[in-house]
């Protein structure tokens, strides 16, 4: 059905299990999902445009098949195994037989180009590690730095947890070993990029905290000199 379609496209059965996808879809997803064992969509992960993680069983194709209607006018962002984020517009449509029963689903994915000067999206949590870290603003107090430190440490834990989930998902992979190893390398590369950015943030926080503590200590020393009676002029 999609032989002549150049855009990324795929089909599912009535329960959402992938039955076919074209080369353009495999290129968009960044890997080749297993037919009959991948449900709803071939994307490694999907996010809403405001950065919220969207479970695959809530993706547009899942909505189309569960609610029996075509979904239009929706935008989302997919993540490849290597961490690349790509905004796209899906066009999922339930396919019915002569009696009106849903027998399959089809979806055409249209990649979108982000506006000039912007990234694929501004992920507030899950996608933070793909966005360059901004310089810490001046004037942060110890409480501010402590909060930043706690969030950075939590983000580090999220990286490791996400990597573990990805590894478990890949462990059940029954496709070719070459494809499995390629995805594994991409996941590890993404993990290392995220860890490097977070380690850079930790270094920034530690340096800022040292500077702030030094300023506090110098301020106390100056106050002691002023209050010391030996420094009183006669």
Give a written overview of the molecule.
- The protein has 234 residues and is an alpha+beta fold.
- It has helices at residues 23-29, 60-67, 142-171, 177-227; strands spanning 9-13, 18-21, 45-47, 76-79, 85-90, 93-96, 102-111.
- Strands 1, 2, 3, 4, 5, 6 and 7 form a 7-stranded antiparallel sheet that branches.
- A hairpin with a 5-residue loop joins strand 6 (93-96) and strand 7 (102-111).
- Helix 3 runs antiparallel to helix 4.
- The chain is elongated and about 85 Å long.
How do the helices and strands line up, and which of them pair or pack?
Blueprint: E1 9-13, E2 18-21, H1 23-29, E3 45-47, H2 60-67, E4 76-79, E5 85-90, E6 93-96, E7 102-111, H3 142-171, H4 177-227
Antiparallel strand pairs: 1-2, 1-7, 3-4, 4-5, 5-7, 6-7
Helix pairs in contact: 3-4
Q: What distinguishing features does this structure have?
A:
234 residues; alpha+beta; 7-stranded antiparallel sheet
Distance between the termini: 100 Å
Tally the beta strands. 7
The major pleated sheet works out as: 7 strands, antiparallel
Strand content: 15-25%
Q: Which segments are poorly predicted (pLDDT under 50) over 5 or more consecutive residues?
A: 122-132, 223-230
Summarize the amount of helix as a percent range: 40-55%
Rg measurement, Å: 25 Å
Structural class: alpha+beta
């Amino acid at each position: 059905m999609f032989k002549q379609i150049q855009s990324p496209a795929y089909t599912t059965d009535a329960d959402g299990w992938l039955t076919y996808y074209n080369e353009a879809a495999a290129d968009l997803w960044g890997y080749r999902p297993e037919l009959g064992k991948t449900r709803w969509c071939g994307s490694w992960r999907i996010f809403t445009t405001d950065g919220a993680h969207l479970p695959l069983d809530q993706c547009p194709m899942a909505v189309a098949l569960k609610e029996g209607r075509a979904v239009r006018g929706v935008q989302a962002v997919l993540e490849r195994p290597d961490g690349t984020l790509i905004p796209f517009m899906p066009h999922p449509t339930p396919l019915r037989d002569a009696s009106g029963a849903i027998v399959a689903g089809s979806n055409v994915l249209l990649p979108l180009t982000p506006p000039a000067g912007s990234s694929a999206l501004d992920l507030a949590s899950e996608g933070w590690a793909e966005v360059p870290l901004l310089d810490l603003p001046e004037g942060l107090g110890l409480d501010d730095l402590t909060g930043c430190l706690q969030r950075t440490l939590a983000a580090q834990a999220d990286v490791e947890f996400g990597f573990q989930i990805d590894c478990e998902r890949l462990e059940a992979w029954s496709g070719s070993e070459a494809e499995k190893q390629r995805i594994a390398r991409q996941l590890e590369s993404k993990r290392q990029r995220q860890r490097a950015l977070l380690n850079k943030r930790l270094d920034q926080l530690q340096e800022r905290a040292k500077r702030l503590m030094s300023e506090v200590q110098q301020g106390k020393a100056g106050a002691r000199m002023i209050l010391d009676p030996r420094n009183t002029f006669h």
